[in-house]
Design goal:
This protein is mostly helical. The chain is built from eleven helices and no strands. Helix 1 packs across helix 2 and helix 5 runs parallel beside helix 8. The longest helix has 26 residues. The chain is elongated, with a radius of gyration of 26 Å.
């Protein structure tokens, strides 16, 4: 069996120390010593003890960008779903480490704040991609992109938290279903905007159609029938 990498040994040592003595009382030197490595080796892999706790968000964001960049206008929403699945799979691969992180960040306010800031980076990336996909710089389009990106991130986080708490055995299936529900809330990129298109009204009346048409036209255009 291969020996764990230095990065993995440092992470395992850090979480063990956090469990034993608390996050605030644990130092970088403590972590390096427990892992049987030097301080220089620690900083070769992590910038701070906070970085030991969190996944490599920069790498995950790059993976998302790469997946989104391969999409066309017609496959953009599929790419968004695939990107969300990539992030979830990363946490699933971490296994118990992800669950220990979840417990720790729920107890330490500074770590919770950093996690919130990290989530904002994902939402911003999705928002920029969706706004570009819409191809419309008007305020309403920007708002739709903001709403869509927030819903995308919320769907992922909802399923991730369920898995972290042991409430689901099929997180991938759940996140796919959650994304289908989220994306169904929004129109396709080439859907007509409000006010465009044709309004169709169907009802029964005893009036002649030629006499009725002027009143219908005034109704559709916002006028009133005197």
């Amino acid at each position: 069996m291969s020996k764990p990498s230095a990065r993995t040994r440092l992470a395992e040592a850090a979480f063990a120390l956090f469990d034993e003595g608390g996050y605030d009382r644990t130092t970088v030197d403590d972590i390096a010593e427990r892992a049987g490595l030097g301080r220089t080796t620690f900083f070769r892999h992590y910038r701070s003890k906070e970085d030991v706790i969190f996944p490599d968000h920069d790498r995950l964001l790059d993976l998302i960008r790469d997946r989104l960049a391969t999409s066309s206008h017609s496959t953009a929403l599929v790419a968004v779903s695939d990107a969300v699945r990539l992030v979830l799979l990363h946490y699933l691969d971490e296994g118990e480490l992800a669950r220990r992180r979840y417990l720790l960040t729920s107890k330490v306010a500074t770590l919770r704040d950093r996690e919130i800031a990290s989530v904002a980076r994902y939402q911003r990336l999705f928002r920029e991609f969706i706004a570009d996909w819409m191809g419309d710089a008007v305020q309403s389009a920007s708002l739709r992109a903001e709403l869509m990106s927030a819903a995308v991130v919320a769907a992922h986080n909802h399923v991730l938290r369920r898995w972290l708490r042991g409430e689901t055995t099929d997180p991938v299936g759940e996140v796919d279903e959650a994304m289908r529900e989220v994306l169904a809330l929004f129109p396709a990129g080439d859907a007509p905007v409000a006010g465009a298109g044709t309004t169709v009204v169907a009802f029964r009346t005893g009036q002649d159609i030629d006499a009725l048409l002027p009143s219908l036209r005034r109704l559709v255009e916002g006028g009133t029938d005197d």
